[in-house]
Amino acid sequence: MKVIITGATGMVGEGVLLECLENPAVDRVVAVSRRSCGHTHAKLSEVLVPDFRELGSEEQQLSGFDACFYCAGVSSIGLKEPEYIAITYDTPLQFAQALLRLNPGMVFVHVSGAHTDGTEKGKVMWARVKGKAENALARLPFKAVYNFRPSLMKPTPGQKHIKAAYKPILVLYPLFKLFFPGIKLSDVGRAMIQSVRVGAPKTVLEAKDIQALAVS
Q1: Any residues with CB less than 8 A from the CB of 215 and at least 6 apart, and which?
Q2: Average pLDDT of 159-180?
Q3: pLDDT per position as a tens digit, 64-92
Q4: d(Cα 211, Cα 162) in Å, to the nearest integer?
Q5: How many CB atoms lie within 10 A of CB 175?
Q6: Cβ(66)–Cβ(53) under 8 Å?
Q7: First and final C-alpha spacing in the chain
Q8: Dihedral angle sign, alpha carbons of residues 84, 88, 92, 93
Q9: Three-class SS state of 36
Q10: Of the candidates 147, 156, 161, which has an alpha carbon nearest to the alpha carbon of residue 209?
C-alpha cells in the first residue's frame, strides 16, 4: 500500500512512520510536514508545506494513495478555543477534503484522543473540538474513515521527536499502565495498517480496540 502520514515531526506521527517503514505491507510513504522529519529510507519521501490547508502546487504529489494516517496535532494547553479549532478541526478537515478529491478510494485514519466528546456539547473544550473533528471527518465519503483514540503511548526505540515533558512519563510507564490503557506506538501504526488491509470492526477505536486490531 501507499500511505500519506502527517505529524511525522511529532511523537505519534514519528512512531507510526517508523512502523510503516518497517512493515512489508507498505510500499511507499510520503510524510507531509512543515519541516523535514529527519528520517531517510528507500520507501520515504517528503512533501513540505507551510499550511496543510493550502497545499498549492504540492497537491498533485498526493494523488494515487491508499491511505492517510493523520497524526498531526497539538496540545490545547495555552490555546484559546478559536486557535485550537483552527488546528484541530479546520486543518484536518480541509486537508482531508483535498485528499478526497485526489484519492476517493482512500482510507483516512485520524488520531484523536481518549475521552473525546462525540456529542460536541461537553464542557471540556479540547474534547468537544476533537469530537467535532471526528464527526466531520466521518461524514466524508472516503472508502472508510477511522478515528483512533489512543491513551498513554510508548514511543518506538530510535524515535527522535519526544518532548522533554514526556520523558518522565516514560520512566514511570509501567506504573501508569496499571491505571491507564497503555499502548506501544508501533502497535498504533500496525493497527492503522490493518485498518487499510482488512478494515476495522468500528469507526471509533479506543485503546483496547487499537490493540486488538494491531494483533489481528
Answers
A1: 187, 190
A2: 59
A3: 999 999 999 998 999 999 999 999 999 99
A4: 22
A5: 10
A6: no
A7: 18
A8: negative
A9: coil
A10: 147
Contact of 10 with 72, CB cutoff 8 Å: yes
The total of other beta-carbon atoms located within 10 Å of residue 115's CB is 14
- Name residue, grid cell 497545499: 55
Instruction: State the Cα–Cα distance between residues 167 and 164, nearest whole angstrom.
Output: 5
- Output Rg (C-alpha) for the chain, integer angstroms: 16
Q: Which of 101, 17, 90, 87 is nearest to 59 (CA)?
A: 101
Helical pair 91-102 and 125-138, crossing angle rounded to 10 deg: 10
Task: Look at strands 144-149 and 107-111 and give their pairing.
Answer: parallel
Q: Please state whether the predicted TM-score (pTM) of the whole model is above 0.85.
A: yes
- 175 has a pLDDT exceeding 60: no
**Is it the case that residue 4 has pLDDT exceeding 70?**
yes
169 or 57: whose pLDDT is higher? 57
What residues have CB less than 8 Å from 19, skipping those under 6 apart? 156, 185, 186, 188, 189, 190, 193
How distant is the alpha carbon of residue 88 from its chain centre?
Answer: 12
pLDDT confidence bin for 179, thresholds 50/70/90: low
